[in-house]
Design goal:
The chain is α+β, with helices and mostly antiparallel strands. About 30% of the residues lie in helices and about 30% in strands. It has two domains: about 100 residues, Aminopeptidase; about 150 residues, 3-Layer(aba) Sandwich (Aminopeptidase). The chain binds coenzyme A (COA).
Length: about 280
């Protein structure tokens, strides 16, 4: 991709986001514009970009956007049929157009990611269950944190695979703040953690995990409230998070804590639903 092409793709994504109310490309797709991790398909006329498809061969996923002025003209299908191998696609916000398009391309909804938001007002004072103490992260805690993360997310395709390199990469990012990573200990060691993130003035529940041995004791709620108090004390107006819709325990915890559903993203997989 030349820098002019990258600029056209970003402008196209902005036009679509303004029309649809949701960004058609996620952070990973945007970062891949500058790397060779993705394949890029562009369609346009006389220097005007009308459509863009980002294909990530390793994950077998694609993200697709057509200019709002050029939809229902077959451009989306044309780009989609250029894919050399079957891929799934993320539909951010799951708009009627993405639903119709996914059905027309013979795909089915296979995973749903809910985005929740909560104002950082009336944040409850954390009530720590007996035996639980909290402190902030130090570099010596990395191995223990990774072990709790792997155990808590054993069923999760991406988060459960976080390793020492992945952790170090994230902690090297400009947003990383050890004071925003709270560790919860009980008599048996590290029981859970809440990793908060702040980007562009918005707070996020980045990762919250409780070791399976310690689940069901109110640790998750205590960690959630403590992290929200930390973000509120920084003066941030809101906190958001993403959670897999299938994770009903976490969904219930966030809804009880006053989070409201802001958006649902759907992953469409190729083919018919398996029964
Ligand atoms: C979804 C999107 C890529 C479709 O692009 P497009 O070029 O308009 O799609 P096509 O013209 O090739 O349409 C192919 C078929 O998809 C279905 N479809 C497309 N838009 C639709 C809509 N608004 N409502 C219902 N069905 C729709 C139809 O079956 C259509 O065939 P038809 O026009 O003969 O009825 C486009 O609306 C877009 O960029 N949306 C924002 C980004 C996004 O949602 N990406 C995720 C894609 S799953």
């Amino acid at each position: 991709m030349t820098s002019a092409q990258v600029a056209r793709v970003l402008a196209l994504a902005d036009r679509a986001a303004a029309a649809d109310g949701v960004d058609p490309l996620n952070e990973e797709a945007r970062l891949s514009l500058y790397r060779s991790t993705a394949r890029h398909l562009l369609v346009g006329q006389r220097g005007h970009l009308h459509g863009y498809l980002n294909h990530h061969p390793t994950f077998a996923t694609a993200q697709l956007v057509i200019d709002p002025e050029h939809r229902r003209a077959g451009l989306g299908s044309r780009l989609w049929h250029q894919l050399p191998v079957p891929a799934g696609t993320w539909a951010f916000g799951d708009t009627p157009a993405s639903r119709g398009f996914a059905a027309a391309m013979g795909m089915h909804a296979s995973r749903r990611l809910k985005m929740y938001v909560r104002p950082l007002t009336e944040v409850p004072t954390p009530q720590l269950p007996d035996g639980l103490t909290l402190r902030t992260y130090t570099p010596a805690d990395a191995a223990e944190l990774l072990a709790v993360n792997a155990a808590a997310f054993a069923e999760h395709p991406e988060q459960g695979q976080l390793d020492a390199t992945g952790l170090a990469d994230r902690m090297a990012e400009g947003w990383f703040d050890p004071d925003g990573l709270l560790l919860g200990y009980d008599a048996d060691g590290l029981a859970g953690f809440h990793w908060t993130k702040t980007v562009d003035g918005v707070g996020e529940v980045y990762v919250i995990a409780v070791a399976p041995r310690a689940q069901g004791r109110g640790y998750g709620k205590a960690l959630l409230d403590a992290g929200m108090s930390h973000l509120a004390a920084k003066g941030l107006p809101t906190v958001s998070l993403f959670v897999d819709a299938a994770d009903q325990i976490a969904v219930k915890m966030y809804e009880r804590a006053g989070f409201g559903l802001a958006r649902e993203d759907v992953y469409y997989a190729p083919g018919d639903e398996e029964h």
